[in-house]
Amino acid sequence: MTKVLLEAPVFSLQGALEAAQYGIDRLELCANFPEGGETPSAGMLRFLKSEVDIPVFVMIRPRGGDFVYSQKELIVMKQDIQLLKELGADGFVFGILDEKGKVDETACKMLLRAVGDLPCTFHRAFDASSGLDDSLEKIVDLGFQRILTSGGKNSLTEGLPVIQQLLNKAKDRIIIMPGGGTKAEHIPLLKQSGYLKEVHASCKLAKPSPNQFINSGLSFSAMPLDYSLHFGVDPDLVKGFKEVL
Fold it and tell me: What span is annotated as the signal peptide, if there is one (predicted)?
């Protein structure tokens, strides 16, 4: 049986290098973990491509919040794709909705043209859309290679029944890639459809920062603890996934 590919979202250099070291098959390179991922820097991608030998897919998202973008934001997204493609991106991750929560086919086509022949993932904007079945068909028709989804719920645990339905509905027309709080124990259930090909899991591990001074009267985040932590990758979690994929 063909092994299922394991992709990890990475938000820092440390996390990306550890993911590659510990056996992750593909990276989804992002910035800004608290916002759920935004476009990373060009320097980060260029450096990573010189350090790792696994594919690096790049998030294209100019800001946090919703997935309805202005024309000028779309131009920024297109230019990011053009620049990051030149720097060696192996694929791209994005998703665009209109004001009614439908897949914005016109905007997606514009970005897909900029991408060219590289593979694209429609990210969890899918989960924010107004109808998953309708969105699935539109994304298939547009030519995306995969959909990252938690089944329209906050976590894969909650959305598992929906993802099982999506796997059976999509069949081999597009890859349904479960993600969002993915655990190794989800995998046997997801494999039952026979269509599971890829899984998205952060396998993240919070590690103490080497920083030795913290100004107790200053906070840069609603979660001050973040200032004293760096997020890496847990090799035991990666191993747990590899054993069941």
Answer: none
pLDDT tens-digit map of 6-62: 999 999 999 999 999 999 999 999 998 878 889 999 999 999 999 999 999 999 999
Model's pTM, two decimal places?
0.93
Number of other residues whose CB lies within 10 A of the CB of residue 213:
4
CB neighbour burial string for 216-240, b if at least 16 within 10 angstroms, e if fewer: eeeeeeeeeebeeebbbbbeebbeb
Instruction: Name the CA radius of gyration of the chain, rounded.
Output: 18
Q: Specify the length of the chain in residues.
A: 245
Q: Position of tokens 């973008």?
A: 69
Tokens of 68: 């309805």
Answer whether 109's CB lies under 8 Å from 81's CB: no
Instruction: Look at phi and psi of residue 152 and say left if phi exceeds 0, alpha if psi is from -120 to 50, else beta.
Output: left
